[in-house]
Amino acid sequence: MEEYLTIGALSERTGVAPSALRYYEAEGLISATRSSGGQRRFARETLRRVSFIRVAQQVGLTLDEIQAALASLPDNRTPTKADWERLSTAWRPRIDHQIALLERLRDRLTGCIGCGCLSLKICRLYNPGDELAERGPGPHHILDDLPGEPAPS
Questions:
Q1: How many CA atoms lie within 13 A of 68 on its CB side?
Q2: I need a surface site. Which of 10, 24, 89, 149 has the fewest CB within 10 A?
Q3: Which tens digit of pLDDT belongs to each residue from 107-139?
Q4: Mean pLDDT throughout 76-99?
Q5: pTM over 0.85
Q6: Strand 4-5 relative to strand 33-34: parallel, antiparallel, unpaired?
Q7: What are the residue boundaries of the structural domains of the chain, listed by start?
Q8: What is the number of helices (H) and of strands (E) in the chain?
C-alpha cells in the first residue's frame, strides 16, 4: 500500500475534484509534499481530512469553521483517535444546532414558517397581518428560539 497518494488517487478515493483539492491545499486545509518532478504527494491520512471536509460541507458547515477545526489537529504527526475525539467534542454543539435546524425545516416546511408570504391558508392563523415582520427578516417559525442560538429580541 502506498504511503503517499497522487492528487488523482486522492480525488478518486474521496470523490473530491482535483481542482477542489488544490483549493483546499491553497487554503491550508490539507498539505502536500512534492515529488522530485514537482508533483503533489499527499500523506495517506489526508484521506480522512478530505473526507471530513466533504461531510462537514454537506451538512452546511463553512470552510472557515472547517479550517478552524482542522487547525486544532497536529500538523507534525498523524492525528490520533484522541485528537479526532477532541475535535468531535468541540463541534458537538455546532452539529447539534445544525441537526435541530434540519429537523425544524423538515417538520415545519408544510405549514406556516413565518416568512410573511401569507400564501397558505394556515399562515393567516399563525401570522395574522404578518405580525412576525416586526421581528425582522426570515422564517421565524423555523429559526427563532433554535437551540444554541439566542432568540431574537
A1: 7
A2: 89
A3: 989 999 999 998 998 998 989 999 999 999 999
A4: 87
A5: no
A6: unpaired
A7: 4-92, 109-148
A8: 7, 3
